[in-house]
Amino acid sequence: MSSPERARLIADKVEAFVRQSIVPYERDPRRDHHGAPTDELVMEMREKARAAGVLTPHILADGSHLTQRETAMVLTRSGLSPLGPLACNTMAPDEGNMYLLGHVGSPDIKQRFLNPLIDGRVRSAFFMTEPAEDDGAGSDPSMLKTSCRLDGNHWVVNGRKCFITGAEGARVGIVMARAEEGACMFLVDLPDPAIRIEHVPNTIDSSMPGGHATVVIDNLRVPADQMLGEAGEGFRYAQIRLSPARLSHCMRWLGACIRANEIATDYANRRQAFGKTLVDHEGVGFMLAENLIDIKQAELMIDWCAGVLDSGSLGTAESSMAKVAVSEALMRIADRCVQVMGGTGVTDATIVEQVFREVRAFRIYDGPTEVHKWSLAKKIKRDWLAAQS
Ligand SMILES: Cc1cc2nc3c(=O)[nH]c(=O)nc-3n(C[C@H](O)[C@H](O)[C@H](O)COP(=O)(O)OP(=O)(O)OC[C@H]3O[C@@H](n4cnc5c(N)ncnc54)[C@H](O)[C@@H]3O)c2cc1C
Fold first, then answer.
1. Read out DSSP for 157-191?
2. Exposed e or buried b for every residue in 342-367, given b needs 16+ CB within 10 A?
3. Are residues 183 and 298 in the same domain?
């Protein structure tokens, strides 16, 4: 079977599953104190996904991943409900973590840490960002402060992290810390008494179990064979995860915005004002037309960048461009959907309000828009200088 056919079949199955079996869960009251779905709810949806053959649909039975272009087709469909990625096990940070472990993990690390994630029975967290008040890593990863030192057969890790999605309740952690050799990445079993949840802030979003925690790492002892690859290579591995993880956020959120746009379109075609349906008012029709244009541009940017990654390139500049263009386009789409729907748009009567809230943070995580533009500007200057010599 050719690759596009294979992906289309999987994507169609995922879409049917999300629309028929997961959309009804959007009204399910099982939420934690931050409004996120409880783990019980997630596991119930996952059992349905397993039965429907759409659990972790982007990783094949032999452990290989779909290509990025194929992944785009599948992850976009899983995003058609804010619960879809959780149900299908295509959500962040697990999807990016699985990608990283699949590409860099030793056979032992894959067996212990990756397989339970692919199986969808546990969740993981990625510990990189550090609090601004500690002058730690944020937009600038080189400010990484969390330390690690070798003590016999163990590494001892100390530091503080923040915005760690899903840390509360995760069973697998990937922790970044700095040794004399440079940045290191460790696989850790969670919970561990040496990793204490200090605080889970209230945030604008409400789709991630465990929220986005601030954690203290206090003399965490990690067996030396749980270091991912080599000491000092942590940023290189982060780079491997970076572009595909950025792009997969674009895919899932594109799915969410496509659905929000369907809901707004339906509203605009039913609701009357001033003697005609809303869609016949140019102001409303134009907003929906602009949504279609932004959706198509987002799809094309994702497909282009996915093709670059599939060619074997790290796609650093391309994924920066795609991430900025898509996250900004999706924000515009979500905003217009709210506007088209009037007061209903800001209520929880539909997922439009949730998509609007959640897409906002996407302009910040995996690199704020300004940081991507800044690094593209540096590349423009480098390329110009190279062209002069
Ligand atoms: C919902 C959510 C989930 C997250 N999940 C995780 C996670 O699971 N694990 C994890 O490790 N981290 C996570 N993060 C953290 C995220 O990666 C950081 O928020 C991001 O890297 C920005 O760092 P900061 O918040 O410290 O912002 P700062 O570094 O303080 O930057 C603030 C602002 O300054 C501006 N800025 C910074 N540098 C430049 C520049 N060079 N040029 C122009 N402007 C600039 C940007 O506008 C930026 O938004 C998450 C964040 C959010 C919001």
1. EEEEEEEEETTTT-SEEEEEEEETTEEEEEEEESS
2. eebbeeeebbbbbbbbbbbebbbbbb
3. no
Mutate to test the pocket of ligand 1, among 365, 373, 378 (most ligand atoms within 8 A of CB): 365
Atom 49 of ligand 1 has which residue's CA nearest to it? Answer: 368
Give, using CA atoms, the residue closest to atom 41 of ligand 1. 371
List pLDDT tens digits, range 120-175: 999 999 999 999 999 999 999 999 999 999 999 999 999 999 999 999 999 999 99
How many Å apart are CA 52 and CA 65, to the nearest integer? 19
| Pocket mutation for ligand 1, best pick of 34, 123, 139 (most atoms within 8 Å of C-beta) | 139
Domain tally for the chain?
3
Q: Same domain, yes or no, for 241 and 373? A: yes
C-alpha to C-alpha distances, 85 to 94, 162, 206, nearest whole angstrom: 10, 23, 14
- Distance from Cα 25 to the centre of ligand 1, integer Å: 31
Same domain as 155, residue 81: no
Residue 131 CB–ligand 1 contact under 6 Å: no
Tell which one of 371, 372, 374, 381 to mutate to probe ligand 1, the residue whose CB is within 8 A of the most ligand atoms.
371
Tell how far the Cα of 4 is from the centroid of ligand 1, in angstroms.
35
Same domain, residue pair 181 and 216: yes
pLDDT (0 to 100) of residue 2: 53
- 109 touches ligand 1 (CB under 6 Å): no
> How far, in Å, is the centroid of ligand 1 from the Cα of 370?
10
Which numbered atom of ligand 1 lies nearest the CA of 204?
1
The 10s digit of each residue's pLDDT in 257-286 is 999 999 999 999 999 999 999 999 999 999
Same-domain status, 247 and 204: no
Same domain, 219 and 335: no
Domain that holds residue 145: 124-231
- What pTM value is reported for the model? 0.96
Domain final residue pick, 91, 110, 138: 91
For ligand 1, atom 14, name the residue with the nearest CA: 163
